[in-house]
Design a protein that fits this description.
- The structure holds 2 protein chains of 2 kinds.
- A 5-stranded parallel β-sheet of chain A has the order 2-1-3-4-5, with helices on both faces.
- Chain A is α/β, with parallel strands linked by helices.
- Chain A has one domain: Rossmann fold, CATH 3.40.50.2300.
- Chain A is built from 5 helices and 5 strands; from the N terminus they run βαβαβαβαβα.
- Chain B has a domain of 153 residues: Helix hairpin bin (Helix Hairpins, Orthogonal Bundle), CATH 1.10.287.
- In chain B, 78% of the residues lie in helices and 0% in strands.
- Chain B has 9 helices and no strands.
- In chain B, α3 packs antiparallel against α6.
- Classes of the chains: A alpha/beta, B mainly alpha.
- Chains A and B meet through α1, α4 and β5 of A and α5, α6 and α9 of B.
Amino acid sequence: MASELKFLVVDDFSTMRRIVRNLLKEIGYTEADEAEDGVAALNKLRSSSFDFVVSDINMPNMNGFQLLQEIKKDDKLKHLPVLMVTAEARKEDIVMAAQQGAAGYIVKPFTKATLEDKVNLILTKLGLK
Amino acid sequence: MSSHHKTSSTAVVAPNEVHQRIGVLTRQLHDSLSGLGLADKVKTWAGELPDAKSRLSYIARLTGEAAEKVLNNVDQAKQHHDHIASETRRIGALIVKDPVAAVAKGHVMNFINDVEQATQQIDKNLTDIMMAQDFHDLTGQVIAKVVTLAANIEEQLVQLLLITAPGDVVAKVAPDELKGESVKIIDEPVLQGPVVNPEGNSDVVKSQSEVDDLLASLGF
């Protein structure tokens, strides 16, 4: 069941983590944990099982690009879809995210419909929905 | 010498002397900045000050829009809530008066439909209120950039003061970490954060549809 998929929401702003978690819940995904930066996210990803990562880019300690790289070079994690949700709107950042293996890219501010569309599209592509 | 003469000798300075003094001060400032390796930095800061103004305007706009959005949604939600409250009282009275008629005439069913529609609208209002809080993230990133700029300027001004002040003053007032020769520059993050002025900037996207088009053009 897609609704049983476990999400990890990564953002240095607690407000945004709550917003994304609440939106995921509203669109039917109730299982979610959160991390405040890339380092904390990697620790959680390596110690627990997740199906989907929603990550900001501009974060302290380890930013979203670095987290994406770490995930993609880890054999146990590289299958995970990573959806970037960020205020970074430079075209070169979007291209870089895609080249590094991001499954999708959402620019802030965004709507519930956008998040729902992107999550469902990624899950459909992966055959998880 | 009279006090009048003393005042005149210190207050009245010939224009060419003023120019000369300003010239000396400017040269000192230039030499100090060059000595610190800060001349280029100062040029950058000068360019960043108007940007800081734009960023502060962006914060004011975003917080204003968020407040407006929240208040509008609260107004709407309260209207739906008031409607349900008054309908509940009306249906309650009808049921007390004649329960069979209240059901048979469709009052109860209409009320149930009303409640369902109103709760859907209120749920949407609550989601919109939640989404309005994203200003915290966006303005937080912009504020961090302005704070970094201010901290950099403050740091360098302190260094400049220390270099131009007499040695004994420096020894008295400067903390140890500021007495050294090294200049600490607070690094600007490589990432740009929210785009404050997207108009006319072809390097950035202005909407989610532009992101989707860009990724689609790359085959993603």
